[in-house]
Every structure is written in C-alpha cells, then in structure tokens.
Q: What sequence folds into this?
C-alpha cells in the first residue's frame, strides 16, 4: 500500500515524524508476525531534493507524480499565517483533486485541513482542525461544516483530524481499517494513546489577539477582557461604544470571527478554567469570580465550551492531576 506524505512548505516536523514512526512500527510488528509490510512510505514535495533527515525514503517531485497513492497525508503546518501558508502550497491543490478523483484517501492532520479546504475539497463536508485554529478556519471557509469538538471526521475518502495528539487517533483508525483491531490496540499501547478520547474542546486556550484595525471592536474587546467578572450580559460592554448594536455586532464578527456574546462567554470560561487549573477555590468561588451567579447555567455553558463539567475539567488539569504516582508499599518483616 502506497503511503505518501506531502512535504509541504512550513510543515511541522513532529507531525511528519509521527506518521513515519507509527506506520513503520506497524510494519515492524507485522514482520514480527511473519506478515507482509502494509505501508510503503514515500515523500512528495515541491523542492528538487528531500531533506537529509528523511533521506532513507523515496522522494518524488510533485510535478512528476501521476499515479495514484492509496493514502496521502497532509501534515500539520507550523505557521500561524495560514493565508500565506496556503499560498505557498497552492501547487498541491490540483494534485489533491486528481488523487481524490482517482480514489486516493486524503488525510489531513491538525491544521493540514486548511489546505484541503482551500482547494474546495471540504465544501459541504464535516471537518475538524486544531482547536485553537477553529475560529480562523470558520472565517476562511464558511462552506465547510466545521466540527470543533471532533477528533476525527470522515466523508467518503477524505479524513481530517484534530490537533496535536488527536492526530494519533487518525492513525489508529487507518491501522484498524487496514491491519485490524488487534494491531490498532497494540499500536495504541505502544504509543500510550488513550483510545476513548471523543472530544478536543478542553484543549483550547482562548487568548484572542486585540484588533488594531477597528477602534470600536478594540474598545469592546478591552472592556470585556478587563471587566468580564462584573459584566452580567454583553449589553453592558456594548453600551460603552457609540454605535448601533447591529453595527457593532457585524463589525465585531468580521474582525474576530465570533459574536460579542460568544467572545464574552469564552473569556469568562477561560478565566474559570485558569482557576480550576491553578487554585483550590471551591466551585462557587470559581463561578462568581468568572462572572456568573447561577451554578446550573455556569455548568451548562462550561460543558458546552469544553466538553467537560467543571469538576471533570479540574480532575483532568487541576493541581492534583500531575501528582506523581506513589511507590507501592513495601512489606517489612
């Protein structure tokens, strides 16, 4: 089975290395069981030569490739300027369309989904990406049915995965499809991957940039960032801006990719997350400090934005979650 990795401009090296590591380990396990290797890895890129770090693998220049690959991986990008990154990798888009028509499986990892979306391959389809890139993605590609919570999406022969370690779940899915459940479980254990993850929302760190292009929007952002704990509803922030509500909301969404109320909600919940991570405050104190006065509403919104209840979030990321395991007790005579 031909597994091709696109060596895109500004790719994240760790994303590429993880693909190689997981599928080469699978090949090794198959050989140990006296079975044939399943994955023949090659690179496809724009530059004349392959970087020396991958020199043991076959390399094809994009313009010379006409035959179908079985699996084509688009690794994560390391650049935050996705518009520029897409432009630098535009030559891959026609190739991806041709491969899709031939029946190749197109697999994007993390922010690699931006390249698929830029080519229109995700229009009308469900897709996911890195949780911290979802707002930018939604703004650039409104025709895509973005699933911010999803670890993996599949539509026909197009796959997308969430960010960072979520991409390992994509690899496990493909290994299960092509090598069976037993091998997928063995790989999961080898790489210490929890197979039951079904949500990536709780990995988001909401730290939006303050716009310099619109003074009205900037004022609303700064007001929310400074006074979120005392603001009970978004009208209190909008009242300080000399413009109509409708105009502010339109401009705010254009500048930030979200409505003012969503910005306020995410700011409050981000503050709550910080307290759950770093303090021993009880849940009522956390709720009040983040600007809420109704526990039921606080819990509902928290779960809506993170996929976890406040207690589940503290159990996962709170001060006690990083405690090292205590050694087993030793019996003494």
A:
């Amino acid at each position: 089975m031909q597994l091709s990795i696109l060596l895109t401009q500004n790719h994240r090296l760790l994303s590429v290395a993880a693909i190689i590591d997981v599928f080469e380990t699978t090949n090794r396990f198959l050989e140990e069981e006296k079975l044939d290797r399943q994955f023949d890895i090659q690179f496809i890129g724009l530059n004349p030569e392959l970087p020396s770090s991958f020199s043991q693998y076959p390399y094809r220049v994009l313009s010379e490739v006409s035959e179908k690959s079985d699996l084509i991986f688009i690794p994560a990008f390391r650049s935050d300027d996705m518009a520029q990154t897409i432009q630098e990798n535009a030559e891959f888009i026609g190739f991806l369309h041709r491969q899709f028509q031939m029946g190749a499986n197109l697999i994007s990892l993390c922010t690699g989904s931006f390249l698929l979306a830029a080519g229109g391959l995700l229009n009308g389809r469900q897709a996911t990406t890195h949780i911290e890139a979802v707002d930018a993605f939604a703004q650039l590609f409104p025709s895509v049915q973005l699933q911010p919570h999803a670890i993996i999406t599949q539509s026909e022969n197009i796959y997308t995965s969430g960010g960072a370690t979520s991409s390992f779940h994509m690899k496990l899915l493909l290994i299960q499809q092509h090598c069976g459940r037993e091998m997928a479980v063995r790989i999961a254990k080898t790489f210490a991957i929890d197979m039951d993850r079904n949500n990536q929302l709780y990995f988001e760190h909401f730290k939006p940039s303050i716009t310099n292009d619109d003074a009205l929007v900037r004022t609303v952002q700064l007001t929310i960032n400074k006074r979120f704990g005392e603001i009970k509803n978004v009208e209190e922030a909008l009242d300080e801006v000399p413009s109509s509500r409708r105009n502010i909301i339109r401009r705010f969404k254009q500048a930030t990719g979200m409505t003012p109320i969503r910005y306020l909600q995410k700011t409050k919940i981000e503050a709550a997350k910080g307290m759950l991570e770093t303090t021993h405050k009880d849940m009522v104190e956390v709720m009040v400090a983040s600007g809420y006065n109704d526990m039921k509403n606080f819990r509902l919104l928290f779960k809506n934005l993170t996929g976890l209840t406040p207690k589940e979030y503290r159990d996962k990321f709170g001060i006690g979650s990083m405690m090292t395991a205590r050694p087993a007790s030793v019996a003494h005579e």
User: Anything to note?
Assistant: Confidence is low (pLDDT under 50) at residues 324-333. The first helix runs from residue 13 to 32. The CA atoms of residues 103 and 157 lie 7 Å apart. The longest strand covers residues 2-7.
